[in-house]
Design goal:
- The structure is a single chain.
- It is flat and about 45 Å long.
- About 15% of the residues lie in helices and about 40% in strands.
- With about 110 residues, the protein is an alpha+beta fold.
């Protein structure tokens, strides 16, 4: 059996995205054979006890195209069927302040 340290693969690249009460981590990691894959982690603080709850998915390179296709499809559906309200996440801004930013909504491109 391998030891615990081998379960966490080498991190090659990481991008952190703060979005209000949630933080998303997009991490590129390498397998032992140096194949890259992506982990996407959502982290949200639980108000009851202050603990962070994390949800993680693993995305392998053979699935990139289909994943991007599906994500683009659902994002386009929402944009076409519901008014897009962009919430600005700036320090000191009131929680309930929203701005309609239809003029800034551009087609997402998730091409790999």
């Amino acid at each position: 059996m391998g030891d615990f340290e081998n379960k966490e693969r080498e991190e090659v690249f990481s991008k952190k995205v703060r979005a209000g009460k949630r933080t998303y981590f997009f991490d590129v990691k390498a397998t032992r054979s140096n194949d890259y894959y992506v982990t996407i982690t959502e982290s949200k603080k639980r108000f009851e006890d202050g603990q962070f709850i994390k949800h993680k998915i693993f995305l392998y390179k053979e699935d990139f195209e289909k994943f991007a296709e599906g994500l683009t499809g659902v994002v386009e559906y929402i944009k076409s069927n519901q008014e897009v309200i962009e919430k600005r996440y700036e320090p000191g801004q009131e929680e309930g302040t929203y701005e309609s930013r239809e003029d800034l909504v551009a087609k997402d491109n998730f091409t790999f």
